[in-house]
Structure formats: C-alpha cells, structure tokens
Amino acid sequence: MTIALPKPTEAAATPDPVxxxxxxxxxxMLVQGSAGGPSFLDSGELIxxxxxxxxxxxxxxxxxxxxxxxxxLLPLGAYGARVVWLSALFAGIAAGIxxxxxxxxxxxxxxxxAGHLWSAAVGLSLxxxxxxxxxxxxxxxxxxxxxxxxxxxxxxxxAGDAKAAGGRALPxxxxxxxxxxxxxxxxxxxxxxxxxxxxxxGWPAVRALVTSPRQLAQVVGVAAFAGLGYLALPLxxxxxxxxxxxxxxxxxxxxxxxxxxxxxxxxxxxxxDVADNAMVLxxxxxxxxxxxxxxxxLVGLGLATVRRSRxxxxxxxxxxxxxxxxxxxxxxxxxxxxxxxxxxxxxALALGLALGARAVFGDDGFLTNLxxxxxxxxxxxxxxxxxxxxxxxxxLRTTQPSIWLAPQRxxxxxxxxxxxxxxxxxxxxxxxxGLQFNEAAWRLAEGRRPDxxxxxxxxxxxxxxxxxxxxxxxxxxYPAEASLAVAAERLHRAPVGNLLAMxxxxxxxxxxxxxxxxxxxxxxxxGFANRLxxxxxxxxxxxxxxxxxxxxxxxxxxxxxxxxxxxxxxxxRAVLAWQHALQLAHALxxxxxxxxxxxxxxxxxxxxxDRTLDRLEARLQLLDGAWTDxxxxxxxxxxxxxxxxxxxxxxxxxxxxxxTDTPP
Length: 664
What we know:
Layout: H1 17-33, H2 43-52, H3 62-67, H4 70-73, H5 79-106, H6 113-127, H7 130-136, H8 142-164, H9 170-192, H10 195-201, H11 203-210, H12 213-227, H13 232-239, H14 251-259, H15 261-268, H16 274-289, H17 291-307, H18 310-327, H19 336-341, H20 343-361, H21 372-397, H22 410-418, H23 437-446, H24 468-477, H25 482-491, H26 496-504, H27 528-531, H28 544-567, H29 570-590, H30 593-606, H31 611-628, H32 632-643, H33 647-650
C-alpha cells in the first residue's frame, strides 16, 4: 500500500497523513500528561471564565474564551479536564502545521521519503519541547497563540511562493489575515512579535497587495471583520459574572484591557538587559528541546543563511521575534508563562532542521555534486537520529513532575504550598504572587474558602488596575463594607485582616460554592480510562490518605513546639480546641469522616465537655450512619447540606434552622 503525500506546491487543504499523524501523536501525549483540572497560575481562572461567560485578565483572550466553548461539546471526561485538553489539541495542531512548513522549506526533498521523515522530525522536535509541555498540559492560551502564528507563517510562505511563481496569492493572503486576526484576539503581544517573520515569508505577496488597492482592501476587510471578536470583552463585562476582570464595558476600560497597559507597565518598570534575557531564553528553549535537536536546528539555520533564501530569513525572524517577546520583560524561566511567550522561537529551532536538511541534501545544497540518489540516501540515514532524540524527549517529559501533570491533585498541591508549617485548615495568605494573594482575598470576599488558589497575579486586585475593579465590585456586593473597598484601592491590595474578620464572624460562609457556579476545581482522575467517566467528577477531590498524614504530621510538629507546659495553659488549650473544631467543621463540609474523627479526638482531649463539639459530633454521627448503611445518596445530601451552612449554623443544634439545615 502506498501513501499519497502532497507536493509542497499543493493547496493548504490537501490531506497530508504525516501532518495528521504527527499532530495526533503530539496531542495524545500531551493529553496523557495533562492536569485533571485547574493548576497554578491562570488555569483555574480560564476554566471558570470559559464556563461562566466571564472575562479574564488582560488582554482578555476573547479568541481562546470563544473556542473554549468546544469543551462543552466533548462527550467524554470532566469539564475542567476537557478545557485542559484544548491546550493539548492546539499544541498538536501547531506541531502538524510545523510539518507542513517543513515540507515547504525542504523543497523537492520534501516530496521524497527522506523529506517525509525530516518533516516528521521537525514536528516531533517541537512537540517534545519542554516549553510546549509546560503550557500544553494545563489550561492556557499559548498553544493557540503558537498555532495561529505558525498558520500565518505557513500561509504567508504559500502566498509568497505563489506570487513569485506568477500565480494567485489572494486566497493564501486572506488566510494570513484570518490567522493574524485570530492571534491578535487571543494574545496580541505574542502575535505582534511574529509579524516580521510573516511579512518576510510573504514579501512578494505583500508587495503585490500594496500595488493592488482592491485586493488590499479585501485582506484588510477580512482581518477587521475577524477583529470584531474583541466585542466579546464588553459583552462579557455586561454579563457581570463573578469572573469579570476590570471594566471593559467602558471605552477607556476596554482600551486598558486590550492593551494590558497596566500589566505590561508593571513588568517593564524594572530594568532589564534585553541581550542577556535573550541569551537566557535561547538557552531555556534549547535545553527544553534537547541540546542535540536544538543544536542541529541552530546549525541548520546557519547553513541556510548562506543560501539567502526568503524562508531562511523568515525563520531567523521567527527565532529573534520569539525571544524578544519575553526578553523585553522581566524573565523568570520557572514560570510557565515565560515559556508560552517564546514558543515561536522553539518552533523556529525545529524548522531549522528542515532548512539545514535542504542546505546540505537538497538539489541546490552543499552536496549538489553527489548523485541525487546518494544525497537522499544520506538524508535518510541521518534523520532517524533526530527522530530518536525527539522520542527520548517525549520519554523524558513523563518523568518531570513540573511538566507531566497527570498525577497532580490541585488540593494537595495547594495544601503542600500553603500549609506545610501551619495548623490544618488555617486560612493563609501571602503577598508572594506564586501563592495568589489577590485571588485568595477575592475568593474569601466572594464567600468561598480560599482552599483552591487558581488565578492570576493581578486578578481583580493589586498591580494591574490599582484595585479599581475590586473597589467597584466590593462596594456593590457589600454596601455596608464599602470603606474596605476604598482601603483596598488606596493600599493597592485587599484588606485581608478585615476580610478574615468577616469570614470568622459568619458574614460569609468559608467553603466551596454549593451551587457549583464555578466548575469543579478538583476532579477524580486516576488513569486515562477514568478520565473518560463523567461520573468521576466531584466538586472536591482530595487524596484523603495524604491529607490525613499531613494533618498528623503538622499537629505533631505544632504540639512538639508547644511542649507539655504550654499545653497546660488554659487559653492555649482553648485556642487549640477551637482550631480542631474549625478543622472538624471543615471536614463535615467535605464529607471527610476519618479526618473528622481524628480532629474530634484531638479536640476532646483538650475540651471533653465542650457543647460546640457535641453539636459537631452529632453531625459527624449522621455521616457515619449514612456511610454504615451504604446510603451514598444520603451521605452526599448530608455533606452538601453541611457545605451550605456557615460556621454559626454548623455549630448550632441540628434542626435549629429548617431553612438552612442539612436536607433530609
């Protein structure tokens, strides 16, 4: 059986099995390693906003938010995981497009089996990049940005080649306009730095458009029409959903959101050495792809430079533009966002493999004096090594916890970061952006315990808009507490102490959203097969064995520091008993029977006759009864009912308030 493979001059829509195979393989590998729902940084914000018709931090990413609706159409898996899979899907699309571009860069060599293998090596080299995996295994916008940039580059190369050959460049030029518009809608900053490469790639078509007002008007009109997608931002603002960011409902607010003016300023105020940053980022990209593949890509770019081809110049522009996207800002290579910014540079290194192959083995390459058959034979001998290094890269990704996120449970991850040295159940907030200070304060003000910190550094409060949006929202939500909102704006952060007092005073219940308005933050995922079962989705999913061990370890450390003498102090014993009672209430809201009994035993040792503990124990006994009887429906009703009660109601006698008590 023979496989029909397209020539590099064929239309973009021509089926190409190598493109599909590489794209599907990359996407499948990323799905296998993807997080089961929200992880740190922007992923939780994006997942929640996608379902709630909410806005996200600037620049708003309306293209990603619109496409994220595809997750609702997938019949398999839990919602949060399906949104993450979109990142893997876009990564696979990007890898497939890189195969198409590589085939074009290879020229006549791309129509032979050696060229097929080389183009596959290009796609797999991009697919195994650690930078791609860091953003492709979580809900993020960067893989879509890479796919649109590569689509624009591919279409520009086709438009330029068509015009240079005397053909029609308009169809491919329209593709470029759509791809660029979609990229600008998604993450305009990343797309702007890709424009030089796109312009160079399609330069013959660009010159023709400039001299043809009619065709230029058609291309610009298509781009402008696609750009109207930014109207999604004010529409989302008018929806007034809880995930709303800023105020794009006003012209000034829309401009600030689209340009991300405040956020970019906060990142660029610090002095940066652009050249030093660029070298650091180049090393990061090379290390993530593997030194052999990246080195071969750089050598290929260097060899192609001698030929002075338009494609080589465009690839160099892609490499430099990808690095400059982040080099102009503060660099933190531990941050997945930094890797998302420079994905176009990783793609350029991968494309350098194709340029190098043509420069050496092509009909117009350095080995042109050798017979054509021998050159192609040599190319076929070399490329398996590239494929081997790429597959080793994929294998390596499965061993890196920061990249292979399949085992990750968000609750355990957050608890490990926030509560290693604190009493279990303590509400802890920090100004360090990695712990999402602003999001924690916001969730607490909304009435949810900040157990799951999932959002952006500047989400709603803090650096980006000086707290203006927080002020307006908080004053509208809590008119009696409007002064706290003003303080938040003046202090450039939420007044955490006041918000904690509100929670402790029962003004808001400190627990997850019982209406599930925000999608399940933690999903029961144990192996790929279970990911396809929607019944595995639960509102909160913890590894209770790990949780129980953490409680024991933390309390043992705390009691060890106190010593026997301090434990005899009446006030200290009262505080400790209250902490155990709070954690018991926390367990009741989660349905954690074993942890509830552990906390009850610790509290009883300090306060044997405490009436509050009696009431909490009565609720725990109800859970025990339902569990012992095997009545799972009743068990879920009980703990979901507990989750609807604030602390005062939870510690009141059962049946004291029919309107708020546990459902029958």
